[in-house]
Every structure is written in structure tokens, then in C-alpha cells.
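G.,

No rush on this.
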Amino acid sequence: MKAVVYNEYGSPDVLQLISLEKPTPGDNDILIKIYASTVIMGDCELRNLTLPLWTRIPMRLIMGYRRPKRFRPGMELAGVIESVGKNVVSFKAGDCVFGLSDMRMGTNAEYKILKASFALGIKPSNVSFEDAATIPVGGINALHFLRKAKTKAGQKVLVIGAGGCIGIYAVQLAKLFGDQVTAVDSAKKLEVVHAAGADYVIDYTSEDFTKNGEHYDVILDTVYTSSFSKCVNSLTEDGVYLLANPGPLRMLRSLWVEWTSRKKVIFEFAGMKVEDLNYLAELISSGKLKPVIDKRYPIEQIVEAHRYVEQGNKIGCLIINVVDTNT
């Protein structure tokens, strides 16, 4: 089978497309033939280890301290179950599924083995493999944080990094829940974000939303660079600050915020639940959500795909087509 690997940390040029033996599922496993995968910023951060310092050393211990142990990138997948182990009863060959891989990742490949107990959604027939592959990171995290905030219809929600894979879903879900949405990102992404449903858009390169006098019931921050204190000060008296990419200092500062005010800071990471995957897929199937796909690359162009994402140009999601289909 074709699979993308890298044997050293560095630029996109370390990525290689090689041939590996097709894996065989164990008794409790399923073998998925991957039709579509993605490249997200997290893939690039793991490849070149530009992660925040507090996570860099633990990731080296997992992946390999000096160099990765033939690490295979890719987190999201959508495809067809080709075969199952003899003990598997929850899935069968021919099921169209989508989800997030295990810690070994490896979805930028033709095949992936997962345990049958792993959380996988069933792809509706009218949802493409490409669209389904965008759900596990962007859709699930956006849904998770908005639910944690317990947003109510009519509240003011601000999304920082609204043009990313989490942000673009958060804009749409917040509108679906009846909120008023302000989206913050670079100018080149705002037209798409506005089309996705944002009521107001702000170009962060020319306007500081923390100085416009507005206060928001919920702020979802999907990037590292926003000022913690300024975001907290831009909340209403009982507002909620959602941190999709928290660092240890922000976690500690959140305790002080909650001790000294009615505001809340939430940074709990999203879990993968089958019911949530299927819920989002049904919203797409019914036309209530629309995945935003910036570009599509064949797996043979994985280097170009990583380079594009790493430059910060991506709007929404970027797809890796392993099988040339969009059915």
C-alpha cells in the first residue's frame, strides 16, 4: 500500500511516499480503505516540532527523541471498511465510516487498522468522503466548546481564527444555535467566513477587537497569539472564554479569573463520541452545515499540501485524496 512517512523532523521535504505491506486486521480490528484524509496545522507542528515548548519534549518521547521512528502523519480519515476481525460485530465489510485515528496516526495512507471499539461515524450516502473527513477535528471541537459554553439563542459569540478548520465549523454551529457571530481572521479569509454565516467580520491585521468597546458572551480562541487578559476583559460579566489551544500559563491564569469574577475559562479537550460524529454528519446531510474545503491534493502531492497549510493560507480544511472519488 502507499503511505506517507517521515524519518526526521523538519520541513515538508522530509515527507516521503513509500510502499508498505498491506496490514491484516486482528481479531478485534477493522481494516479501513481510506478514500479521503486531511492535513491540518497539527500535522505540520508534529512534523517540524514547532509545538509549544511544554508539549515538545513529551511528543519527542512518544515519537522519538532525536528523530521520529518512521512516523506516519495524518489524523482524520473517511473510507470503506474492507475487512473485520472474527470478533467484530459492530461493523461489517462495506460500511462507509469516518473518524479520527489513534495516537499512531497514519491516515495519509491507503489503509488504516483501528480497534472496532474506536469511535467511528457512519457516513450518510449523500455526504462525500471528503466532507466526512473534515468532521473529526474541526466539527467535533467546535461542537464540544460551544456546548461547554452553554450558549443561548441571541448571545454574542466571537470566534478567533474563524477561517480555520475548527473556526469555520464554530461559526456555522453558533449561527445554527441562534447566536450572533463575530469572526476574527485575516482579510483574505473573511469573505468565506462571512459566507459561512458570520454576522460581523474583523481583520485582525487592521483592527483590534478588544478595543472596539464590544463585549461578548462567548469568545472561542483557536490560535496561540491572542492576548489572554484582553480577551477576558472583552467578555460580559458572566462570559465564557473557550481555549482550543491552551498553554500551562493560561490554564493557571484561568483559575484566578474564576476566583475573582463570574467569568469562566474552559480548556477541556474534546472527546470523540460516535453520537457526535453522526450528529454532525446528519447536519451536513440535511444541508444545515456545509464543510469548507480550500484545496484538494492527491496523496502524491503531500509535500505541497503540507507546505500550503504551514504557510497559514488554508481556509477551512485541506483534503488529501487517496482514492480518486468524491462520492
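When you get to it, here's the other one too:
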Amino acid sequence: MRAFAALTFSVLLYAVLSLGANTVSAAGLSLEDRAKLETLRTGDMTKLVVHPKPRDRIAEDFRDQYGNAINLADFEGKIVVLNFWATWCPPCRYEMPGIDRLAGELGGNDLAVIALSTDRFDIDRVIDFFAEIETQHLGVYQDRRGDLARRAGALGLPVTLILDREGREIARVTGEAEWDSPETKALLQELIAMTAPGA
């Protein structure tokens, strides 16, 4: 009887601990991590709004320059900087070279930078603009029907979402920013470190 009670207690304890672990994961960043990010919200990153909890994943597809369907789930495991922009938007055009440089400097196994055009025109306009400003690191992506932008609540441009490694929005910047500034890179590097597996 005593052995059965001990076994039952062990099972219950494991279940509680597992539930607690899942709750922490679902809650996103810890209070300590959020506090760290707050101290790094300087320069243009004062525009960054860190959400109290992660928002639901966005399932809508978008397209690459070849017409292939792309999904944010394809980038799972990485922090994602998802920038909604358009070729007709002057602030978007202004910040795009910095976004390209950010992709070159921090893009890789831990961070993906996606510049997602919401242009309703043919994607050739996006390709031509990237050629004009000589981007080196950005892929050509388009949300031509605006499905993903609407789902994300990107009502004005530019809007940039920061997604965690599970594809959930944890923060956003409304308006243009210097995406390759030291302040921005420091904040993103801290976010990469605090969300690294085993961190």
C-alpha cells in the first residue's frame, strides 16, 4: 500500500511538473527575459512593443519569386524578423537597405529576416526594386492578396513582427527603424541567446 501511494505521488508530481513546463513555454518569455529586453529598447527600438504573451501562429501562405508557396512554419526553430512593406511606401523603401544588411550580419541558423511585400502588382516590381538598391541577402517574397498581413493586423506600413522560435509573434515595431543599428542588433542577439535551446 505504501509503495502504491509513493508511485501515485511520483506520477502526480511528474504530471504537475510537465504541466508547469508547458505553461512556461506557452507563456513565452519569462519576466526576467522581458526585463532584459526592456533595458535594450533604445534608439529606434523604443518603438518595439513586447507582448505580454505570444500571439497565435499565422498559418497563411505567401509566395516566393518563383510562385512557390512559403509558410512561416518553414522557419520554425529560428527567431524571425518579418517585415511587411510595399514598393509604393517611402518609409519602407528607406529602411530596406538596413533590413538587407541585418539579414547579412545576423541571418543564419538562429535568425531569419523576411521582407514580405504586400504589393498587389506583379512581383517583378519587387525584383526590380531589390535590383535598384542592390540587395544581397533578402529573398523575394510577396503577400499579394494581403491574407497574411490582414491576419497579422499589419494595417499600416511598414510593420515588423518579431516571431519566437515556435513561430509566434512576441513583439512588433510599427513604422520605420534602423534595422542594422547597434541597438537593434544588440536586442536581437540577446533574444537569440535567451531563446537558444537549453538556455
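The beta strands are 49-50, 62-64, 69-70, 79-85, 111-117, 141-142, 159-163, 169-174. Residues 2-27 form the longest helix (26 residues).

Enjoy the weekend,
O.
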